[in-house]
Amino acid sequence: MILWQPGPSRSLSAALLARGLTQHIAMDEAMIPLAKALQDAGAPVIMMQGVAGDWPASLAGDPGAWQHRFDPGFSPRGPLHACPAIATGWAVNADKIRATLRKFKEAGVTVDAVWMDWEGEPIAGAGPDGYAQALHCARCRATLPPGALASEAAYDAYLWRRYLDLAGGYLAAPVEEVFPKCLTTNWRAALSTPERPQRSWPDRVLPPVIPPFFTATNPVAYGNTLFWKPGTPLDREHVDQFYTRILLNDVSNDTANRLLWAPERKSIPWVCRWCPDDEDPKIPAMSRERYREVLRHLWLRGVADMQVFNPVYPGHEETAVGEVQDAVAVYDEMLEYRDFLEKGEPLCLDAPAADGVLWSGLRLEDRAVVRVFNGKVAVEPWPGRKMTLEADQKGRTYLLTR
Known about the structure:
five-stranded parallel sheet
């Protein structure tokens, strides 16, 4: 596991590595000494950076080379966006990736993973104003494929596919050239299909897509307040049930799609209990007890690693620590089933039942581990071998043998 906000690098010692945590580094040659120290300590070398805004389109230089070219008389309401068909900035960045990683390699460092959080152009241009800008851009009308500008929904869907194509071709592919075994992913580079779609916030269905080149997917399991539905009962159980579905949705859908369309890829989700993108203080958060339960089920639904989103919000500093405590505590529990986590086949990728009953499990040949929460479930870990398992709201883990 890595943390969004890990603290000073010296604090991530061998003791924390034994707990499943490691220090991530930036894709910067200045990080080579730290990378060598991590490698010498037996830790994987994992790169992660968060960037948004007009980057990397802006790397093309003069704004005229990448920004929209508006019709006379049109004025955008917000910041000027990039023409999504122009990949010059991405190509500039790809050359920088190759050069930087080669320096790591020459220094004797093997980069094990590149898990980026690049959320800039072209997806920065989604939404009503972004669509209006593209619609009034002469270059977009001349370069975008037929139908991309037919509606705001069509344009946003095109941007999402384009974003993943660009990130795959200009991030994952250059990394693979230098480190062929490196595990690569980027923000929400997950599989989406009509049957099992991914959802962004606020509850926007993402188009069908299989991100190219990436060797891992990046679904998101956030208790994001943007998802909150007014009118949901505010008692503890209904709030926890609401967020349980949200947190399990992307990971479960991605795993179902991966097993069918890309079984060679691993799943590395971002996770957090509370993400107040809607800052309304009246929106409740899920309990830490239920969040820990959900984390157990995520591990039993095909997750390989985790990225823990633990930013420090003013006035809620203790939450950043709680996110880490919960993730590490559950990981400690789940390491008892390490062989299942590494090689097991998921048994359940369904949403929780309407009454909150939940189960997940992994099968490994003649053994299975199943977690049940809040009721009775009928499971069939092997064809023709059905049984009923049950647990209260403390949950129960079963080890089964055929």
